[in-house]
Design brief:
The protein is an alpha+beta fold. The chain has one domain (2-93): Ubiquitin-like (UB roll) (Roll). It has helices spanning 33-44, 51-54, and strands at 2-9, 21-26, 55-56, 59-60, 64-68, 71-72, 88-93. It has a 5-stranded mixed β-sheet with strand order 2-1-7-5-6, with no helix packed on it. Strands 3-4 form a two-stranded antiparallel sheet. Strand 3 and strand 4 (59-60) form a beta hairpin. The radius of gyration is 13 Å and the shape is globular. Belongs to the URM1 family. It is found in: Cytoplasm. Keywords: Cytoplasm, Isopeptide bond, tRNA processing, Ubl conjugation pathway.
């Protein structure tokens, strides 16, 4: 079981009941970012029509900056990164309407 802090910024909080910060507890042995993404989609997005705002083809949608403890997730192994207690995962939309 792992406990992490998840932040949704840049307007993403709208699809999470306008709450930017969440404490998330996920059961399992090694829990990866991919597991967290699956959990977020299944358990945290209340309006299933909003799933496409967050993910595309099973991964984070292009235009959403994903950070693990303030480092780009690609530098940390992307979806394969194994979460540790206390990690802070931030998702920030860089897409803006005009």
């Amino acid at each position: 079981m792992v406990k992490v802090k998840v932040e949704f910024m840049g307007g993403l909080d709208v699809i999470f009941n306008k709450q930017r910060m969440h404490q998330v507890l996920i059961d399992g042995g090694e829990v990866t970012i991919k597991d967290l993404i699956d959990y977020i989609v299944a358990e945290m997005i209340s309006n299933k029509n909003d799933i496409g705002v967050f993910v595309e083809n099973g991964t984070i949608r292009p235009g959403i900056l994903t950070l693990i403890n303030d480092a780009d997730w690609e530098l940390e192994g992307g979806e394969e990164y194994v979460l540790e207690d206390g990690d802070i995962i931030s998702f920030t939309s860089t897409l803006h309407g005009g």
